[in-house]
Amino acid sequence: MPKPKKRGSNHQRGAGGQPRNVQPFSDEDASIETMSHCSGFSDPASFTEDGPEVDEEATQDDLEYKLKGFIDLTLDKSAKTRQAALESLKSAFSSKILYEFIMERRMTLTDSIERCIKKGKSDEQCAAAGLACLLCVQMGSGIESEEIFKTLGPVLKKIVCDGTASIQARQACATCLGICCFIVTDDITELYSTMECLENIFTKAYQRDRDTNGVSSTHNTVLHISALLAWTLLLTICPMNEVKKKIEMHLHKLPSLLSCDDLNMRIAAGETLALLFELARETDADFFYEDMDLLTEKLRALATDGNKHRAKVDKRKQRSVFRDVLRAVEERDFPTEMVKFGPERMYIDCWVKKQTYDTFKEILGSGMQYHLQSNDFLRNVFELGPPVMLDAATLKTMKISRFERHLYNSAAFKARTKARSKCRDKRADVGEFF
Questions:
Q1: Could you give the angle at the alpha carbon of 151 between the alpha carbons of 142 and 84, nearest 5°?
Q2: Distance, CA of 365 to CA of 358 (rounded, Å)
Q3: What is the pLDDT of residues 18-37, one digit of tens each?
Q4: pLDDT tens, 291-345?
Q5: How far apart are CA 206 and CA 273, in angstroms?
Q6: From CA 139, how far away is CA 131, in angstroms rounded?
Q7: What CATH class does 62-206+219-229 carry?
Q8: DSSP-derived secondary structure for 221-263
Q9: How far is CA 206 from each of CA 55, 132, 221, rounded to the nearest angstrom?
Q10: Where are the domains of the chain?
Q11: Which among 351, 348, 331, 202 has a CA at the least distance from the CA of 274?
């Protein structure tokens, strides 16, 4: 049986180790090939998890070789191949820090993204917009990112405002527009222009014909939600005088969206209201809202909603969110959350921080913790300081083996089962609790 050829052999690499004539995927195996390439770096911990030591330099070279091939494939004639390449790059950018690799190829990546957004179909446009977000997250705030946004910003705005484009593409571009502007824009004029573009989208939800039950649901709702959340993210970095103007403009209109048929719209509107109240009270400690009684009545109804025609999961999620929103509006309170990543901890103690964290978690997915540890831009956003540098010996002492984790989880499971069984036992004496 002949020996398999090595991927790094000379017939596949040109001078300088650059990939030469990377074999493009066929339409049939594009997605399969993508998954096989991405599986190795979908989880950063997979490289070191209880396995033998590996040559980090060789692993990095292998990863970069694959990524170069994916960048080339974003120019392929096949739409399915281009989309698969975009998704593969997204997986890599969300799970590893690749600043130097991207810095050398940022213009090539920008051109590929621009071409895919302009000429691609809905799925390809969504993948390209997602990659644009991750590209800016990797590059952080700086001149290079500003150049990327100057190229992609007008294209994104055009798609967002294009009524003939697919709703999914417009939704993805609205999110991308907000995130990229948040990361790179120092120009206050560009910030206001981007917010105005997003406002023109989500304010259409105010104007929908209302029946006795409130705002009727439409197929544009997902676009309105994305535009509203992107606008809210940008509001958190606005000067206080602009924040006051936006609060006066939208605070009395947003409660109408609480009656929307779509659960995600109700939640987005509720969390935006909580954030607006938080900002308003920061700018004016004596802030007074005229329709407070009517608003709190609406929020309380949503926090205790028991409508039988709604799914139990939806009702549970809605009640949980609106209990927090009601506390924020009535009592100026926020339920602090703790996020663990590596040896560090971060406390989310306000709605502004929660909105920012949720936005980046949505685009980074499982890579959020890794980026919080290593990404200078994100650490600066959340005021975490420089990355914590730990040597190999310290990391080894902190690491728990799989067998120890198994024992710990087994013990915790048994203890939890016993506690639940005791609570569920009908013979338990409940009188002692009164």
A1: 100
A2: 10
A3: 444 444 333 333 333 333 33
A4: 899 999 999 999 998 777 778 888 899 999 999 999 999 999 998 999 999 889 9
A5: 15
A6: 12
A7: mainly alpha
A8: HHHHHHHHHHHHHHHTTS-HHHHHHHHHHHTTTGGGGGG-S-H
A9: 58, 30, 11
A10: 62-206+219-229, 239-333, 339-415
A11: 351
Q: What confidence tens digit (pLDDT) does each residue in 218-254 have?
A: 679 999 999 999 999 999 999 999 999 999 999 999 9
The pLDDT of 414-431, averaged and rounded, is 62
The amino acid that residue 167 corresponds to is I
Paired tokens of 420: 């639940």
- 13 phi and psi, to 5 degrees? -120, 140
Angle between helices 221-235 and 167-184 (to 10 degrees): 0
- For the residues 27-50, what does the mean pLDDT come to? 39
For the whole model, what pTM was predicted?
0.78
What residue type is 75 in one-letter code? L
| Secondary structure element (H or E) that encloses residue 315, with its range | helix 312-331
Residue recorded with tokens 């190829």: 105
Q: Which residue has the tokens 């596949």?
A: 12
Residue with tokens 């910030």: 191
Q: Give the CA dihedral 302, 308, 313, 315, nearest 10 degrees.
A: 10
What stretches of 218-376 adopt beta strand conformation (E)? 337-341, 344-348
